[in-house]
């Protein structure tokens, strides 16, 4: 006679008989959308931001680039920061710094094979010749700091160096002009700053753990059927794994997949508990459960930051 747990599993799996062939390979995943906390959470808690002065020849160019990048930080349908224009203004934080740009050009010679004789439009003999070439190195470094207006405390301070190197020889053109290279580098740094100080919403896909290693033989086929079921009825599949967890406790695949079920349902605290439980069972150091715990940690942090910002807005409204 089947146990109560076995009965629950059989009910959840009953719909599979007509849906999947016995030989169908399982490679299933769950697609999710998550809001991840910014690496610099203290900066992300600010409500309003002003782009201050950036010194250096390319400072004004960077001011505009970082302003646009931060303005594009739209999360939950609205800009994460309210940008305040002008050198003054009532902003929670001010971002400023310095941009240093250096360009160095060197001449050198390179040996290349060139066609020395042609016949009927085809090269029939090549010679190795020395050609004049140019190497251009562009170094751009942006030093930034973001300070709170109320107490002057610096909440974000970083140096972002970049190097762009290009070479070309006689008869060739550089891949891009110096101005284009500097502009692309500045845009890249500005985008990186945006992701340092503002959260991001990301679509991502995580695969279920499918290995049956360590499972009793009579649970191997039901486990594989549950994996397939995730693409048809995720909630029923997760309920079936929950029942199976009691039959085969501490199986790394079941525990990890239950963590992924909880993450997909938005129950991040429960997902964290499952991932932490699965990590030592899987072993091998930085395994998928360890990665999952780190990912869920950033999801939890984003919720906490949202709650703190919301409390701050309510507090400002009462003053």
Question: Can I get a quick summary?
Answer:
By secondary structure, the chain is an alpha/beta fold. The protein has 9 helices and 9 strands. It is flat, with a radius of gyration of 29 Å.
Question: With helices defined by DSSP (H or I, 4 residues minimum), what is the helix count?
Answer: 9
> Cα-atom Rg, whole angstroms?
29 Å
Class by helix and strand content?
Answer: alpha/beta
- What assembly state would you assign to the polypeptide chains in this entry? single chain
Strand numbers in spatial order across the main sheet: 5-2-6-7-8
Number of strands: 9
- What's the pLDDT, averaged over the residues? 88
Helix content: 40-55%
Q: Roughly what fraction of the amino acids lie in strands?
A: 25-35%
Uncertain segments are 1-26
Ends apart, CA distance between termini: 68 Å
Task: Give the SSE string.
Answer: HEHEHEEEEEEHEHHHHH
Major sheet characteristics = 5 strands, mixed
- Shape annotation: flat
List the helices and strands and how they pair.
Layout: H1 4-13, E1 29-36, H2 41-44, E2 48-55, H3 59-71, E3 74-75, E4 78-79, E5 82-84, E6 93-119, E7 122-148, E8 154-169, H4 178-197, E9 200-207, H5 217-229, H6 234-247, H7 252-264, H8 268-282, H9 288-318
Parallel strand pairs: 2-5, 2-6
Antiparallel strand pairs: 1-9, 3-4, 6-7, 7-8
């Amino acid at each position: 006679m089947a146990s109560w747990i076995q009965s629950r599993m059989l009910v959840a799996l009953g719909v599979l008989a007509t849906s999947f062939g016995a030989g169908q390979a399982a490679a299933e995943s769950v697609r999710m959308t998550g809001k991840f906390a910014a690496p610099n959470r203290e900066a992300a808690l600010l409500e309003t931001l002003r782009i201050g002065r950036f010194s250096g020849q390319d400072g004004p160019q960077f001011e505009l680039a970082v302003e646009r990048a931060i303005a594009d930080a739209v999360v939950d349908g609205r800009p994460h920061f309210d940008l305040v224009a002008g050198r003054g203004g009532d902003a929670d934080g001010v971002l400023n710094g310095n941009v240093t740009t250096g360009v160095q050009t060197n001449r050198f010679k390179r040996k290349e094979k060139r066609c020395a004789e042609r016949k009927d439009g085809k090269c029939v003999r090549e010679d190795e010749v020395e050609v004049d070439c140019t190497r251009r190195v562009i170094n751009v470094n942006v030093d930034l700091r973001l300070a709170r207006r109320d107490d002057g405390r610096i909440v974000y301070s970083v140096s972002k160096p970049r190097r762009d190197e290009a070479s070309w020889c006689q008869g060739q053109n550089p891949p891009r002009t110096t101005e284009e290279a500097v502009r692309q580098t500045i845009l890249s740094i500005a985008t990186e700053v945006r992701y340092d100080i503002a959260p991001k919403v990301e679509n991502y896909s995580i695969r279920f753990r499918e290995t049956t290693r360590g499972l009793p033989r009579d649970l191997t086929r039901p486990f594989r059927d549950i994996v397939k079921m995730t693409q048809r009825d995720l909630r029923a599949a997760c309920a079936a794994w929950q029942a199976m967890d009691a039959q085969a406790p501490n199986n790394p695949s079941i525990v990890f997949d239950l963590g992924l079920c909880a993450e997909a349902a938005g129950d991040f605290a429960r997902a964290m508990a499952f991932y932490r439980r699965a990590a030592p069972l899987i072993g091998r150091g930085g395994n998928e459960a360890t990665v999952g715990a780190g990912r869920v940690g950033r999801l939890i942090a984003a919720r906490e930051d949202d709650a703190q910002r919301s409390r701050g807005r309510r507090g400002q409204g009462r003053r």
